[in-house]
Each structure stands twice: as C-alpha cells, then as structure tokens.
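Holo prediction — adenosine-5'-diphosphate.
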Amino acid sequence: MDEFELIRRFFSTGYPQRADVMLGVGDDSAISRLGRDEELVSCSDTLVAGTHFPPQLPADAVAHRALAANLSDLAAMGASPRWFLLALALPEVEPGWLEQFSAGLARLAGRYQVALIGGDTVRGPLSVTITALGSVPAGAAVRRSGAVDGDLIYVTGTCGDAARAWQALAGGATLAVEDPCYRRFAYPEPRVREGLALRDLASAMIDISDGLHVDLERLLAASEVGGAARAQDVPLSAALVDQVGLVAARELALAGGDDYELCFSVAQSRATDLGRLSADWSCPPVCIGQVRSEPGLSWQLDGRDLASPPPAFQHF
Ligand code: ADP
Ligand code: MG
C-alpha cells in the first residue's frame, strides 16, 4: 500500500465533515474559513533522521529543511505564512545540537516573519514535525485543481540539485559545504514571495517535494487534465550538469525531489503578465510544456517521446 492509498483508505473519509473546510486532504495545504474575508491555510510535514536526511546533517540544516518544506507547501497555495508549531523527538538532550538547530530555525523564520507559537518535545528517534499556518484572502488560494486545456506549464528555479546531493550523501560521500547542490539540499529556499506573487496569475500550483514528474502529474490529475512537457527545457543548474553530466542531470531533475521549486500553470493569454511579474526573480520561471485535455503526462526530449516515466520518491 503506498502513501496515498493509505491516506485515502484511513484518513480521507469517516471523519466529521464541516462546512468551513474549503479544502481538506489532497492538496499542498488545507483551507479553512474563519471569518468572512480571510481563510486559514495549514500544512504539516515530518522529517525523520536517516529517512529524509542523513543523521550527520548539521542541526541548523535539519531545522531549515523542516521549516522550508512547510513554507513551501504554503507558498504553493499562494498563502502568506504567519505561524508554526514544532514537534520534536530527540534521542537525548545535546545543548550544542539544540543551539544550532534553534539558530537555523530562527534564521529562516525571521526571513519570512513566521512566529513559533507552540509544539511538543519528547524523547525518541530524531524526527522533526512542523505544522505551518498562513492565510489568504477568502477564495484566493491557488489549488492543484485549476489547470485547463491549453494553459502553459512553468517551473521556477532549477531542478535536480537537491536530489544529486541526497544521492551522494546517502552513498556515504561527504560534500563541501559550499557545493551548490549540497546547499540546495541542506538550505532550500521556499518560494514564498513567488507563490504570493503568483496568486492572481497561476491557474494551478504545486511545490516540488517528491519530483517534478510525479508532482506535475498530481497537479494535472487534480485538474482532470493531462500535459505534454519538454525535458530539454527543464532548467538545470550549471553545478548539477558539471557534477553528473547532462543525461543524469535531466533524470535527477525529473525524478528527484526536495527542490521545493513551484510548478504551476498559467493561461496562455497571461504569459506576458508572468514575464513582467517575474522579471526580477532570482528563480525565474521557465515554460516546460502545456496542459492538454487527454489525461496523463508525456515527456519529449528534442521532439522524441521519452519511453518510461521517471521514478519518484516513495514514502512506502
Ligand atoms: P505534500 O507533499 O504537499 O506535503 P503529501 O504528499 O505529504 O503533501 O500529502 C498529500 C495530502 O495528504 C495532503 O493534503 C496532506 O495534508 C494529506 N495527508 C497526509 N498524511 C495525512 C494523514 N495522516 N492524515 C490526514 N491527511 C494526510
Ligand atoms: Mg507540497
């Protein structure tokens, strides 16, 4: 049973239904109505030592990644981040480790002005769960489900860097702290400002946590459409191509997760607006394909069909 089958079977039905839940299980974040004008956007993400990061990863990076993953899920809805809760399981109390952890957490929280408002601390194998809360004007959140036939598909920044670092670290390699791929893995930058800016422009949006192919496939499936994408247009960093070569770089970009870039669709008529809006972004969006009415996501490389779909990160 994979993660999604498990969630569908045990956590999607049988619980109380409420009229103030605008969007529940199934998107990057949930949307709940509080007052008339604003909606609460919430998400939660867990990182387990040895599963989502190597145990020797510096504590500030563990904290950064855990918060960044959540801020990224809020960004994917076009939400403003506001508060977060931290549930921490620690095998033992190591003041030095906690010092570094809290410094990393405070640094990223400060950058986006999100307040730590609670949590829980227990003894156990190292794991970090963060629940992040944000808001949108009522009805303004960008869901995965709004893409329509003909929309253009974009991705911000570059893909595959974090997966390259994770692969190397998992294989026992030590990476230089200044290695750009390592930095993308250890200190990913959630696209909070970009997500907010896209709120009135993107028809659908998702953040890339499991891999570009599989996450774009999820966006298209949620929108009940399909898509055709061009592998040669997927943005790659020079560092990634340098380290693994073009062919492996493309594979990592399509299949690798943890990039925390945004993948979104925009109506063709608004492509010039997007160009204007993103002119000064450090992670400019690149058009990688187009939404089609036939279901499924197909990839081409220089005009030829790519036979097998790239694999993705599987929790189970
Ligand atoms: P993301 O990769 O964007 O963080 P996930 O793939 O982790 O999203 O989760 C997919 C959806 O399932 C989300 O809407 C999430 O809130 C929901 N979900 C995951 N685990 C559970 C659970 N144990 N109970 C209820 N909902 C869950
Ligand atoms: Mg997500």
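READOUT: The radius of gyration is 19 Å.
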